[in-house]
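The data are quoted verbatim for reference:
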Amino acid sequence: MVGPHEVLGMSRLLGITTTEFLARHADNGGTTLRFGADSRCVFVTPAGCRVHARRPLVCRLYPLGRAVDENGVEKFAVFPPQPDCGAEIGTAGTVEAFLGAQGVGPYLDWSRLYGLLYRRMLGLLDRIGIEGRLEARPAGSPGDGPADHAPVAAAPLSSWQDIDASLADYCAKMGMAVPAGIGQAIELHLAAMREWLDGLEGRVGAGPKKPKRERKA
C-alpha cells in the first residue's frame, strides 16, 4: 500500500509529477505499486531499488510487519526473507533502533494523518450514499475539492491521491504558490483535504454522536 505522501516522495526522486507516477507505476486506484510479469515491484532492478531513498513505509519496515489494534497498541512481527532479497537480516539490536535507522518516523505520522482523513471521507460518502470513486469539484472555497484533471491509465481512486494535480488546482484558486518542499506540500495537502471535508460535512450535517460509555463504579 502507498499513500499520497509516498507517491509524492517517489515522484520527486524520479523527476516526474505525481500524475505521471500514478499512470506509470501504480495500480488499484493508485494505492499500490505496479508489479511486472516476474511478480516483482517495478522499481526492483539488479542494482537494487530505484526509489530506495524515498521508498514507502512498508518497504522501510521490512522485514518487520506492523499492526495496530483498536486500542492503539502497536505490535511487530518478522517476515521470512524474500527470495533474492539483498537485505541483511539479523537478531542484534532493537525494534526502536531499527525504525530510527530506517527513517520511519515521518512516514508513520503522515500515514496516520491520511488514514484519519480517508476514514472520515468514507464515513461522509457512506452517509450521502456515494460509492466508488469520488468525483472531484473545483477547489477554492470551503467544501470544494480539486478539479478533475485529464484521465490517465489506472486513474486514482480519489483525486486527492494525486497531490500535484490537487495542489496545483487548489493553490491556483487560492492565489498562492505550490510549496516546493515535500514536507510543506504534504502539510498543505492535508490542510486542503480537511477544509474540503469540513465543507462537505457542513452541507450534509454532523454525523450521529457516539454514545458515551458508562463509567464503572
Q: What stands out?
A: Residues 143 and 187 are 18 Å apart (CA to CA). The chain has one domain: 4-81+92-204.
